[in-house]
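To fix ideas, we close by showing one paired sequence and structure record:
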Amino acid sequence: FLSKKYRHPLQTVIPSKIINMENNHENKPYNSHRRSSLLTFILLGAVIYMATIQVKAWWSDQTAASSTPRAVTPREDLKEDEKATIKLFEETSPSVVFITTINLRRDFFSTNIYKIPAGTGSGFIWDSDGHIVTNYHVIKGADEAKITLWDQSTWDAKLVGAEPDKDLAVLKIKAPDKRLKPIKIGESKNLLVGQNAYAIGNPFGFDQTLTTGIISALGREIESITRRPITGVIQTNAAINPGNSGGPLLDSANRLIGINTAIYSPTGSYAGIGFAVPVDTVNRIVPQLIEFGKVIKPGLGINIAPDSFVTNRLNTTGVLILNTVPGGGAKKAGLKATTQAANGRISMGDIIKEIEGKTVIDSSDLFRILDAKVVGDKVKVTVDRDGESKKIEVTLGALKE
């Protein structure tokens, strides 16, 4: 291990001593180097420690600066139109309700009956007796309905009456007077295109939602669930989405001017065109539903042929009378029904061409014209009878279902 140069002369005599002596001699530069390395390590650690302290101090300053909230810029008072909108919502939203419909299903393997949520919609409080007005399509086919009021209390509702032709229905709940806040009733006959419109409802199940817009058009016509025309409909661009159905459309005086009932959209969501049944129609029909459970509709007392038969087989326009109802206005006035002779020859009845000077092209026109009348009104009916035009006055009677 030791080279010859460094071998001690006494190595052969006392080798262990020599080795110890040599080790002591050789450890001197080694220990010096060790002390130097240790000093370097200590100095390096001190530098790292001081750098860490500096970095932590810098980071604390940066964090403190970034987490300090910025000063709030003060604003002036709300604009008058904003205040008016806020007031409208605060005053009217307690009159708007959330409707949940339920279907009952029987277990196939037992007699257990399960309640399954069927849908949701909106409505509003009509009077302090607990009557709730909504769309017919909101509660159509439901076995039960529950009403959630503005204070989040929920009440069982029963159906009082419905008018599918106008997509209207009336429910009733037994709630204390203090929880019932009837909506203000306006009128729709004097509305103007361009005036503000406000819709409150429960789109997609989110309760008490307000959207604003204007009246985009008046006098629109849409088709009801029974395929009968609903006339005088209000068109608005106030956002109406699924769940808004049955909710109120309001004017700037916080008054009901219509019931949101349909939208025009290729996707099923709001596309800028919504429709509302006018309040004048609502105010005429709802009292009848409350009193009778149905609408007493005026009619001529006739049964009519399908429009396609008149158009395709007779190649004309109008409404063909198949038969007249015994005791009805048409029979008393002498309107002619369609008959068939013993030899099979068919004699066509009168074809209604006009009522009160308004052209009747098909059954929709007939229903549209009579919709504005009441039982007992007298109307002048123009018919085509065997190629000749005749005018006959008919007293409208109550339609029998």
About this structure: The mean pLDDT is 84.
